[in-house]
């Protein structure tokens, strides 16, 4: 799809949160059809072999954070309030949003 292609050849440098935090590895997007984020994670089948060599993720417990509990498919462990939704960038005004935190095991 267009999203996978855009992630493979981005027009701008992708980064996590801050521009000083560019991605260290390629995105490697895969299109998966699933009803929930949990189903998509388990259908994914775990990280690719090159990632398994540098990080032992399969079978390990990982933390999942989402702001949409209804479609995530994960059982929430706790709720965290974050004040990071900008409503006025000029005055730098932010409002709270709920973030659901869950833990699950990575598929093997």
Q: Can you characterise this structure?
A:
This protein has 108 residues and is α+β, with helices and mostly antiparallel strands. It has a domain at 32-105. Helices cover 23% and strands 28% of the residues. It is built from four helices and three strands; from the N terminus they run H-H-H-E-H-E-E. The protein has a three-stranded antiparallel sheet, with no helix packed on it. The longest helix is centred in the middle third of the chain and has 8 residues, at 37-44.
What class do helices, strands and sheet pairing give?
alpha+beta
Strand residue content? 25-35%
Uncertain parts: none
Major β-sheet profile: 3 strands, antiparallel
Distance between the termini: 26 Å
Radius of gyration: 16 Å
- The percentage helix is 10-25%
**Total beta-strand segments:** 3
Write down the overall mean pLDDT. 77
Q: Count the helices. How many? A: 4
Topology order in helix (H) and strand (E) letters = HHHEHEE
Given the C-alpha coordinates, what overall shape results? Answer: globular
Enumerate the strands of the largest sheet in spatial order, edge to edge or round the barrel: 1-3-2
């Amino acid at each position: 799809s267009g999203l996978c292609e855009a992630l493979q050849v981005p027009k701008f440098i992708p980064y996590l949160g801050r521009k000083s935090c560019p991605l260290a590895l390629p995105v490697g997007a895969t299109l998966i059809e699933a009803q929930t984020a949990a189903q998509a994670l388990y259908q994914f089948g775990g990280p690719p072999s090159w990632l398994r060599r540098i990080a032992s993720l399969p079978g390990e417990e990982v933390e999942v954070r989402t702001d949409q509990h209804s479609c995530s498919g994960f059982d929430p462990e706790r709720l965290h309030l974050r004040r990071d939704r900008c409503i006025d960038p000029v005055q730098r005004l932010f409002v709270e949003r709920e973030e659901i935190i869950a833990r699950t095991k990575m598929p093997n």
